[in-house]
Design brief:
Layout (H helix, E strand, L loop, with lengths): L1 H10 L8 E6 L9 E3 L2 H6 L8 E10 L7 E20 L14 E8 L11 H4 L30 E8 L2 E9 L8 E5 L7 E7 L2 E5 L9 H13 L1
Parallel strand pairs: 6-10
Antiparallel strand pairs: 1-4, 2-3, 3-4, 4-5, 6-7, 7-8, 8-9, 9-10
Length: about 230
């Protein structure tokens, strides 16, 4: 059992804070003598049972006479893996479509399955201002899936568009056709231009479009803009 625990600790070593690992079940069969390995890729994909918190992990025992080409004997284990995890609780009821306020949230640190640094952690500041997908009761432990994505640009919003070409910049007003968060892309409409423009969201209510270099083929947008301008005269 100690060998299994050590192998699991090695698999979870990059998951941040120290974890408590309790091995609950192993296969009742004879296994070859060798090195026990739980690949990090499989550990990343594993998810605990939402009712029990127990996680099922698969690995292998590397054995054989050739250390460069070892044989692999598959093995599994059921364990409880816990560490300090932040839980965000709703302190007032929330109707479907309503925006979440910061004064309706309470954060507590409990023991639970860990969250990797590169995975989304549920924090109060990331949920505030998002709209509920469904009705939520007071006391609900919140998950990101309960809320619509938070947008820095909303659908049909008039935003500031910065068009860049080398060192030159041009400030325009555009209307969004969809919503997107900072770092995402949004489709925009420009007055007098038939073609839609796909721009990069850089801040709340702001987007940016970088024109191709002079050596490349001129974008369709400029051709459509020129035709639109002539038609308006």
């Amino acid at each position: 059992m100690e060998i299994v625990t050590l192998a699991l600790q090695s698999a979870y070593k990059d998951w941040g804070s120290p974890l408590e690992i309790q091995v609950l079940e192993l296969p009742k069969t004879l296994v070859p003598e060798g090195a026990l390995v739980f690949p990090a890729s499989r550990v990343r994909m594993a998810r605990p049972d939402p009712r029990t918190g127990i996680v099922h992990l698969t690995g292998y025992i590397a054995y054989g006479d050739d250390p460069n080409r070892p044989l692999r004997f598959p093995i599994w284990v059921r364990a409880r893996v816990e560490g300090p995890v932040a839980r965000v609780e709703l302190t007032c009821p929330l109707e479907a479509g309503a925006e979440l306020r910061s004064d309706c949230l309470r954060t507590a640190t409990v023991r639970g399955y860990p969250v990797r640094d590169d995975q989304e952690e549920i924090r109060a500041e990331t949920l505030t201002g998002r709209k509920a997908r469904r009705k939520l009761a007071e006391g609900t432990i919140l998950r990101a899936a309960y809320f619509a994505a938070k947008h820095d640009v909303e659908p049909n919003q008039e935003i500031q568009l910065t068009v860049r070409s080398g060192r030159a910049t041009l400030q325009l007003t555009a209307t969004s056709e969809g919503g997107a968060a900072k770092g995402g892309w949004v489709l925009l409409r420009l007055r007098g231009v038939r073609q839609r423009l796909r721009a990069h969201v850089v801040a709340a209510g702001e987007a940016e479009y970088v024109l191709p270099s002079a050596r490349s083929t001129p974008p369709v947008l400029l051709e459509a803009g020129a035709r639109g301008s002539k038609g308006d005269q």
